[in-house]
């Protein structure tokens, strides 16, 4: 679809009018506060819009996106967003959502040079190198999808190990982490069954997720 900037404003006015007509007071109720139950950490890819995929409305999901959904322990942007979501908004679920066909993950897998982003993707190359043995026995045409899944698994562990989640679980706060992968080709979310509700069993769940990924076509 070809659009211009003026189209965006026209669509926006039509959407706001339609929302207000169908649900009078929708916007004014959101002015008071946001009470999302979910936080989405996903890839910036334009084909992976958090709200549309999950049918969530404005006010229902708190979103952080970056290239290839990476959560680095020293990334103040990601950590601040997670802290706000967990401590202030008290979200119940945080999901890290990768997607098949992620060009960031592919570049990391192949060691392709893109530019500045190479430094960011280095984190995914760390994931690749850590799981070299697992990736090596997976068929070449499956390897990128496997690394997409491995990246989600590792990034959830990073979220779990962050001071924000450690403190939340120490307080007894009810917040669960999830790892999902989205299929650009079919629009469907896959659950990697990484549900983490605390420190208990993390190692076991991590090992099971890796074993699952290792079952991919060889
Ligand atoms: Co991507």
Features:
single chain, Beta-carbonic Anhydrase, Chain A, globular, binds cobalt (II) ion, 218 residues
What does this structure look like?
- By secondary structure, this protein is of the alpha/beta class.
- The protein has two domains: 1-32, no CATH class; 34-216, Carbonic anhydrase (Beta-carbonic Anhydrase, Chain A, 3-Layer(aba) Sandwich).
- It has helices at 5-22, 26-32, 50-54, 76-88, 103-110, 117-130, 132-136, 140-161, 163-170, 202-214, and strands at residues 38-43, 61-66, 93-99, 176-182, 189-191.
- Strands 2-1-3-4-5 form a five-stranded mixed β-sheet.
- Helix 5 (103-110) crosses helix 6 and helix 8 runs antiparallel to helix 10.
- The radius of gyration is 19 Å and the shape is globular.
- The mean pLDDT is 96.
- Bound molecules: cobalt (II) ion.
- Residues 43, 45, 68, 99, 102-104 line the site of cobalt (II) ion.
- Cobalt (II) ion (CO) binds next to helix 5.
Summarize the structure.
By secondary structure, the protein is an alpha/beta fold. The protein is built from ten helices and five strands, in the order ααβαβαβαααααββα.
Q: What proportion of the residues is helical, as a percent range?
A: 40-55%
Low-confidence stretches: none
CATH topology of the largest domain: Beta-carbonic Anhydrase, Chain A
Strand order of the largest sheet: 2-1-3-4-5
Distance between the terminal alpha carbons, to the nearest Å?
39 Å
Largest sheet: 5 strands, mixed
How many β-strands, per DSSP? Answer: 5
CATH top level assignment of the largest domain:
Alpha Beta
Q: What does the overall shape look like? A: globular
Helix count equals 10
Series of H and E elements:
HHEHEHEHHHHHEEH
Count of individual domains: 2
Give me the CATH superfamily of the largest domain: Carbonic anhydrase
What would the average pLDDT be, to the nearest integer?
96
